[in-house]
Inverse folding.
């Protein structure tokens, strides 16, 4: 037996599979809990092509959602999408031991709270992934680029768990930025995601170039970023005005890019609307801050979901 | 020969065909200029079923777009959609005589200006149609309900031409409201159309019930109506706050309704985006009035059009 901590990945899509591979490479015992991919992974393991080399691995245990664990993990890494119909606290319950640390590698804002409320005694490590990866077929992942994690204890600080886990990821070959203010980092990431992702969905899959080059598009993005900034500031995370132009210029320098929320929408998969946009608007309302641009996009997305009977 | 005035309908879709039928019934000579429907109408005339009875008729002349007129009409009634790619002033030019009065039965705001500029000596009669009618196949129209026209001289007043034409429509069996302020009436109609029509497109064809019952939907409609009202007031057409709830309550009393702009969009036809929404935002900008909700919807519609390479 290794003296390295044991890892359980809940929701091993592209993100979960990739970070599991990194920890496997670092010498950890890595198991997965799967639903639709169970048969494929049970038979063939997880196949990952990557600029870092072949990261394919066989999880130590391949559990099916509903199984009981043979042992509870030291770190439970939750990588499912944050959707209104998914009770993440219930999803992890069977796998949580007395000493299990909960790790979130998920998008959006204010997504830790329901888990912190459900597991007040478990330390929560909150992570933001900066990665381009996609699942091409069951159990098969293509890692295209990047991979950095921004990591911190929720709601703030850096503890020994963060340090241990970040060292393991570093040993596995990826970069980690430890942060004392992970919630602030979530706001910072939302400056981009909250305008661009939902707009791309509303525009039926417009890429970044189309969004910025449409008459009035760049200004709309600017207005939406400013609304996010105003809410972030009210929450205690002020940012300098210069980040607006930085986000726009940075986006203009990238090749035209269709974000994952747009791809989810176009492929009929649910989108993380509330994690990325709805929660920002809800927090704005608590502060009495008007966010008319964000709100218009949110409500039109809700109308569409109601029309399509999906959420 | 009748001593009744001669009529030419340019753009004989559902609306043009119906109002042509009414004037035919009133004893006028009614001709049409057609494009895609030419062969069907030349062969079979225009077939119209209606609660008013069978309104089918053969136009006195069936012209094809590009023909030369045998005589210029007393009234040229323009019923084409108001679209960025359609030069309406050029479209009517071959048919305009020295004494031809120009009649617009078209939706939207600030749609008279380009014709008034092109034909400064021709009186313009501006009309708003309140009607449910649709073209079911080439040359065939189903008139379902209503039919009232609100009519006035552009930019304001009621002249002898308005009186003559309104009498003919009345003789043909429909109701006419003559108004001294037809532009104000356009603003009044836009209170409904400017929020509901584009939102329905953005939401991929949501009906009025879906729009109002979505969480935040009714408030979004309220905010958009208020923005239109603020611009209307700056243009000299103040309205009482009570019209907001009147529009919402009136809509709730109707059966769920999918508006014509949504149907156009869903059927791949161009939408009157600028006539109904873009012009309102442009006028707001001239006055320096912020209209963030309207602007967000406008820009997202433009993004979609850019993505689809259509406008």
């Amino acid at each position: 037996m290794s003296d390295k901590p044991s890892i359980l990945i809940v929701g091993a899509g592209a993100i979960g599979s990739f970070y599991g591979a990194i920890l496997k490479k670092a010498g950890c015992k890595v198991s997965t809990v799967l639903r639709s991919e169970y048969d494929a992974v049970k038979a063939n393991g997880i196949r990952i092509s990557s600029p870092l080399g072949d990261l394919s691995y066989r999880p130590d245990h391949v559990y099916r959602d509903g199984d009981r664990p043979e042992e509870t993990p030291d770190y439970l890494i939750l990588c499912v999408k944050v959707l209104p119909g998914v009770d993440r606290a219930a999803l992890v319950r069977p796998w949580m031991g007395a000493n299990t640390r909960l790790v979130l590698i998920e998008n959006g804002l204010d997504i830790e709270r329901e888990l912190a409320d459900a597991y007040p005694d478990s330390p929560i490590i909150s992570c933001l992934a900066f990665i381009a990866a996609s699942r091409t077929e069951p159990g098969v992942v293509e890692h295209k680029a990047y991979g950095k994690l921004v990591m911190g204890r929720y709601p703030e600080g850096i503890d020994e768990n963060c340090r241990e886990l970040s060292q393991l990821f570093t040993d596995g070959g990826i970069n980690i930025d430890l942060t004392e203010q992970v919630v602030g980092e979530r706001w910072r990431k939302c400056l981009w995601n909250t305008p661009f992702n939902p707009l791309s969905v509303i525009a039926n899959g417009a890429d970044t170039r189309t969004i910025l080059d449409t008459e009035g598009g760049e200004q709309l993005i600017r207005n939406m970023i400013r609304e996010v900034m105003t809410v972030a500031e009210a929450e205690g995370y002020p940012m300098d005005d210069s980040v607006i132009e930085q986000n726009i210029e940075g986006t203009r320098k990238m090749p035209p890019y269709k974000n994952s929320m747009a791809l989810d929408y176009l492929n009929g998969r649910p989108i993380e609307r509330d994690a990325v946009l709805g929660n920002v608007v809800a927090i704005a309302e608590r502060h009495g801050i008007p966010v008319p641009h964000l709100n218009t996009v949110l409500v039109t997305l809700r109308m569409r979901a109601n029309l399509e009977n999906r959420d």
In short: Chain A touches chain B at residues 199, 202-206, 210-211, 213-217, 219-220, 223, 292-293, 295-300, 302-304, 306-308 (CB under 8 Å). The longest helix of chain A spans residues 182-202. Chain A has two domains: 6-180, 184-307.
